[in-house]
Design goal:
Layout: H1 2-18, E1 36-42, E2 48-57, E3 60-68, E4 73-75, E5 77-80, E6 120-122, E7 127-135, H2 139-142, E8 149-153, E9 170-178
Antiparallel strand pairs: 1-2, 1-9, 2-3, 3-7, 4-6, 5-8, 8-9
Length: 179
């Protein structure tokens, strides 16, 4: 009986491993010559608010936001379609980056936008970090003729309501520049 169980476990292990890609090709694995872009975040009054980084990885783009000087709590964090951050409201960054024409939010059955990130949680020290991999995202679509921007909102994203997640006003913005 014990041999049969061990044999079953071995078969399951082999099946599980067969589903894995070779090292370096799993979703999110860095690409040695992968491109990257950085957005320096600023508030409407020009104060530093952190930085966002996008890197090409296997299967998509890895996005990381490191924020400083933002009020404690949860804040929506989205990549927007236009690389402009004109104060005071940053509306020149347009809507969320959405090359597939999806609806907003990870909890929306028809979502999410490529630019929808998890909420950015800011601690009492006014710092926070959020990141993730955007599957299937293309660097050339992000850094296109009119660029793109990283925007932090004043409220938490509800992860469902189209088109913005009810995340409120835009409190920090930065234009992505290829590095």
């Amino acid at each position: 009986m014990r041999a049969a169980i061990n044999g079953s476990v071995a078969v399951l292990l082999i099946i599980g491993l067969a589903g894995c890609d070779t090292v370096g090709k799993q979703m999110g694995t860095p690409i040695p010559a992968g491109r990257s872009a950085v957005a320096l975040l600023k508030t409407a009054d020009g104060k530093d608010a952190g930085r966002a980084t996008v890197r090409e990885v296997e299967g998509g783009l890895r996005v990381t936001v490191d924020a400083i000087g933002i009020a404690p709590g949860e804040h929506g964090a989205h990549i927007h379609t236009v690389g402009r951050c004109d104060a005071p409201d940053f509306m020149t960054s347009a809507g969320h980056w959405n090359p597939a024409g999806a609806k907003h939010g990870a909890l929306n059955a028809m979502g999410p936008h490529a630019g929808d990130l998890p909420n950015l949680v800011i601690g009492k020290d006014r710092r926070g970090t959020v990141g993730g991999v955007v599957p299937g995202a293309n660097f050339d679509s992000l850094i296109d003729a009119d660029g793109s921007a990283m925007v932090v909102h004043d409220k938490a994203d509800d992860m469902m309501t189209d088109p913005t997640g009810n995340a409120g006003g835009r409190i920090a913005c930065g234009v992505f520049t290829a590095s």
